């Protein structure tokens, strides 16, 4: 008889699971699951539903159930390869900070597009308002209003603004993504205290803590609410989208598509372009537009 379980964390030596009654189970994967690569890679990821058998004291993952969705990125490195970050998600919580590190639009545009490509809703968090002020954070968020993005300006350190995000995470499985050091784990500790997410190493030379998260981890702080912490990303490449259709994943561009004079309009210098019209009227911001063009070029170069 096979039992079902949910993947909590994938380690080198095995997989941590939540069993049917919420109990933690450690399992290894059936070799056949891993294929020729002999690695779990994208086969078993956090959020997956798996079927496990028992061999004496051992739990073995026999099967991975089909995913309702998954959030991927292009794996870092030179090869064009997919990295599945997590599966079966309700929303992506994109975490940024106002300072240390500075707010960076580039990653925001990439992650928002990737979530859209995966058919997953997203919200934007601007953390560390204590270092720059709430006004400025709200300004960052306002840039994304034409894209229909909900944002939260907050301070994980003091807890200010965190209850609103907590509320937005109730009843959902949320994937926390962002650059290293923006405060994802600190924020998760606030929403879900007692998970020792920050119990990492302390730098012996500086005496300062660097608690860099090294693997995705699913938390269940309260019934129905699931939060996934992930390691910070340095760069983020899109996966699973062609340059021709990228425009469909920028919500503020979408209403202006289909009206261009030429059916194959690239919205660059063609006459009668309704997207350029929207750009000139400010309905699409210049900054988002530049991001879109850069991403489209990048996808074109990968061919
Ligand atoms: N001033 C200030 N510092 C914060 C705040 N939130 C987090 N920090 C600090 O930012 C640093 C990084 O926080 P982490 O929570 O480890 O960041 P992370 O996003 O999980 O980083 P990775 O695991 O490397 O991806 C720590 O020194 C935190 O104490 C905040 O609201 N204000
Ligand atoms: Mg972390
Ligand atoms: Zn056009």
Number of helices: 7
Structural class: alpha/beta
CATH topology term of the largest domain: Rossmann fold
CATH class of the largest domain: Alpha Beta
User: Based on the structure given, which CATH architecture of the largest domain is correct?
Assistant: 3-Layer(aba) Sandwich
Give the overall pLDDT as a whole number.
92
In whole angstroms, how far apart are the ends?
Answer: 46 Å
Uncertain parts: none
Topology, element by element:
Blueprint: E1 3-10, E2 15-18, E3 24-29, H1 31-34, E4 49-55, E5 58-64, E6 70-74, E7 82-87, E8 91-97, H2 105-117, E9 121-127, H3 134-142, E10 150-153, H4 162-169, E11 173-177, H5 184-191, E12 217-222, E13 225-229, H6 274-280, H7 286-301
Parallel strand pairs: 3-5, 8-9, 8-11, 9-10, 11-13
Antiparallel strand pairs: 1-2, 1-4, 2-3, 4-5, 6-7, 12-13
Guanosine-5'-triphosphate (GTP) binds next to helix 5.
A few lines on this structure:
This protein folds into three domains: 62 residues, OB fold (Dihydrolipoamide Acetyltransferase, E2P) (Beta Barrel); 158 residues, P-loop containing nucleotide triphosphate hydrolases (Rossmann fold, 3-Layer(aba) Sandwich); 59 residues, Orthogonal Bundle (Ribonucleotide Reductase Protein R1, domain 1), CATH 1.10.40.50. Helix content is 21%, strand content 25%. It is built from seven helices and 13 strands.
